[in-house]
What does this fold into?
Amino acid sequence: MLRRDFVRGSSAALAALAAARRVGATPRGFRPRSSLARPSAPQLAWQRRERALFLHFGVNTFTGREWGDGTEDARLFAPQNLDARQWVRAAKSAGFASLVLTAKHHDGFCLWPSAFTTHSVKSSPWKGGAGDVVREFTDACRAEGVGAGLYLSPWDRHEPSYGDSARYNDYYERQLTELLTHYGPLTEVWFDGANGEGPNGKRQVYDWPRVHATVRRLQPKALMFSDAGPDIRWMGNEAGVAGDPNWCAMDPAAVPYPGADGPQIIDALQHGDPRGTVWRPGEADVSIRPGWFWRESEDEKVRTADDLEALYFSSVGRNANLLLNVPPTTNGTLGDRDVRALAEFGERIARMYASDVALGATVSSNAPSARAHRAAMAIDPDPDTFFTPLHDAGEATIELRFDAPVTFDVVSLQEAIGEGQCIGSHEVQARLAGAMQVVASGTTVGHRRLHRLAASVTTDRLVVTARSTIGPVRISRLSLYRHD
Ligand code: FUL
It folds into this structure.
């Protein structure tokens, strides 16, 4: 099927296009679509941060439930030693540069003293009703130099107006406005799609266009997450696993509203669409424990650093950001076991990235390129430089030669996504016992694609071939690490 994004050509050219589409490449002679979706500056900065910490905290922490029903007594909320700085430091120890806190979950209890309800910290014994968790959280993030994000559940099982759509939408807008105007700049605003019936037996109809417009107006740099974006999309599961392939672009009609359900919706969330008109990269959310909220009975089930590392490879390693939930305890701090796992995970990833053996290579490519985009730019650590061939041939090859053999077991490929995402397949070959052999291959690259090899490879020659489905191959960085 022909798409508008290719300029019309001769029948021979069209046949070449059809053949190329079958193998997933862009043939010579076809110009890429000029309107390729690209990230905004905040989206690109967010993708480069790669990892964020999620904090589920509220009355559920004290009842041991996952979904409160809204009848919880606000007096239950009584953390003895709440310490938001500890949350942020634990996040930083694992290399997380931003955090997202549940300002309000489905039970409707607000972690800030909202002027529009009494069902909040105001009615709790914590700090004599004068405390504000959102304030402590955002202050701690700012003091520690990391981004702060907030989750405001649209579904509210406490608020009497819920289900009376127009009235509740006003209530929600007022609460959102408080969060967007009282706590300084936010990096992310998190919406989920849960949508129940109100006390009147009616299903609430959310006003998403109004919600989005409010966030844009009051916090133009904050990115909005939901199944339907508009800036960041859900990855389609809560297991921390990105799709393969995973495109950052999407057809906005594929997931019309948050909470839309069905196999095609999940498929669209997992994979995106190379020809999609909007840039909506995926965020893979997952918890360090079986539940989202803390409960003592799950203290023995905290994921290990090994597990967290596997999640890193299945999310960040497949072009999605990792949003890892680590819930505070009834004490108001993160548990020791969780903090230890985070720190160990962070150390391992830092150790892996500490030494890139590709840096010593002599680099060449199979095609001429402009000086600014020469082959050596493919190993240059500057994320803003990249290799691209002078003429877009839909395929490009980078060759690395080493004076002395190097050993690695992780291959990291990064595409210059500031220009859009184009690579649809790639292959890595290394000279082993005198012959070139495929050591890794895959589909999309995007911000980062990691291959963890089954065994370490020692070689003096490496060739990476990348094929593009929609525009030029642009390799921002190829790096080789040892992970143990
Ligand atoms: C879902 C919620 O229903 C869960 O409780 C949790 O907050 C998860 C991250 O999002 O929609």
About this structure: The domain at 12-353 is CATH 3.20.20.80 (TIM Barrel).
